[in-house]
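Long-time lurker, first post. I've been practising inverse folding by hand and with some scripts of my own, and I keep getting stuck on stretches where the structure tokens seem ambiguous. Below is the full token string for one chain I'm working on. Before anyone asks, I'm not after the true native sequence, just a reasonable design that respects the backbone. If someone could post their per-position residues I'd love to compare against what I wrote down in my notebook.
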């Protein structure tokens, strides 16, 4: 695997400038984006789209979210180095790898066996050791590893997923696309507080709907040891 160094990649430099212009000034996040070779997370035929504004095709009819929107989502999470994060929908693995540079550990769930296998190969090649992945339907989260400081969903739910919100640590936050009563997707930030769940609207979104079950057969956990993290 190889990719052009950041200084030699005009598309990456343009992305970084665009992110700064739109208000993303978090130095740690920008450094993580600069250091992570996104083309490696895509099939050979899709790598020209690595830093573009459109989703890039993946196997099994899936697609990888454009990096500008990934950056927006990760920025919205306000990640800190000691946090434990759950991701619903591993996809290409780029977002998980990006978050892994910013937090203590990332747990990620993916229902497509082939896609998860590709992501795991990239994690190993880049020597990213603080990601734990599992092939599983993400609707119920990963209760065995809860509570989480942050949960991020890359699929849209038909209603607010209480099963995920219940796996948040107190004051933890869930970023999730939810279909509203008009059939439109809203990106919501759900914060767990002692008095209940606080919901705020982040904006509109266009994620694929969540699907039940797994695709391509079951698979065990991969990556860092899948033991429960100490509080």
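-- Answer (accepted) --
I ran through it position by position. Result:
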């Amino acid at each position: 695997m190889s990719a052009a160094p950041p200084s030699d990649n005009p598309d990456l430099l343009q992305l970084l400038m665009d992110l700064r212009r739109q208000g993303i000034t978090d130095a740690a996040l920008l450094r993580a984006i600069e250091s992570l070779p996104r083309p490696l997370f895509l099939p050979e035929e899709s790598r020209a789209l690595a830093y573009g504004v459109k989703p890039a095709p993946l196997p099994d009819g899936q697609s990888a979210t454009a990096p500008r929107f990934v950056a927006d989502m990760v920025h919205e999470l306000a990640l800190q180095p000691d946090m434990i994060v759950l991701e619903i929908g591993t996809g290409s693995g780029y977002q998980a790898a990006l978050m892994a540079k910013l937090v203590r550990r990332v747990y990620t769930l993916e229902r497509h066996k082939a896609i998860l296998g590709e992501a795991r190969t990239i994690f190993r090649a880049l020597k990213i050791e603080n990601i734990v992945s599992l092939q599983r339907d993400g609707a119920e989260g990963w209760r065995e590893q809860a509570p989480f400081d942050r949960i991020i969903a890359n699929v849209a739910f038909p209603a607010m997923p209480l099963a995920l919100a219940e796996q948040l640590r107190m004051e933890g936050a869930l970023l999730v696309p939810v279909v509203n009563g008009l059939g439109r997707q809203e990106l919501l930030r759900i914060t767990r507080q002692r008095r209940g769940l606080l919901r705020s609207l982040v904006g509109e979104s266009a994620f694929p709907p969540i699907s039940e079950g797994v695709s391509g057969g079951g698979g065990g956990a991969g990556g860092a040891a899948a033991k429960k993290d100490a509080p």
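A couple of notes from the structure itself: Residues 191 and 198 are 5 Å apart (CA to CA). The domain at 68-223 is CATH 3.40.50.150 (Rossmann fold). Happy to go over any region you disagree with.
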